[in-house]
Design a protein that fits this description.
Layout (H helix, E strand, L loop, with lengths): L1 E3 L14 E4 L2 E7 L13 H19 L7 E8 L5 H12 L5 E6 L9 E8 L2 H4 L1
Helix pairs in contact: 1-2
């Protein structure tokens, strides 16, 4: 198993990796709206939080040599389902025509009081790269 970290990111305070890779499968840990390079927490509302989470996802994918189109499954945790339309709009802009499988899990509380967290599973098709 390979442990993925983001080059230049601050050290992770928790006991986990940004992602793990086994063969072609990439398992991306839950991404909170925290800038991985500065440690700054996003506090600009659901728009800013969602944009930071998606940016973090890009950083992890890049560190693993993958891209958005490699994502097969996404799980989104949201602290207030009334915010869903905003999250879904930004999610749709992020993925464009790519539509991975998805689950949305309403929860009453997320770490640090955030409103959104996202985890993903990707499959890196090594034959496609050759």
């Amino acid at each position: 198993m390979k442990f993925i970290s983001i080059k230049g990111a601050k050290s992770n305070p928790g006991h986990y990796s940004a992602a793990t890779q086994q063969g072609n499968f990439l398992f991306i840990s839950g991404q909170l709206p925290v800038n991985p390079f500065t440690g700054e927490r996003s506090r600009g509302g659901i728009n800013a939080e969602t944009k930071q989470v998606l940016s973090n996802l890009d950083n992890v994918l890049e560190a693993a040599g993958a891209n958005r189109e490699d994502i097969m499954k996404v799980t989104i945790y949201i602290s207030d389902i009334s915010l869903w339309d905003t999250v879904n709009t930004l999610y749709k802009e992020y993925f464009g025509d790519h539509k991975p499988a998805r689950a949305v899990v309403p929860t009453n509380q997320l770490h640090y009081g955030f409103s959104v967290e996202l985890e993903a599973i990707a499959y890196i098709d090594k034959e496609k790269e050759d």
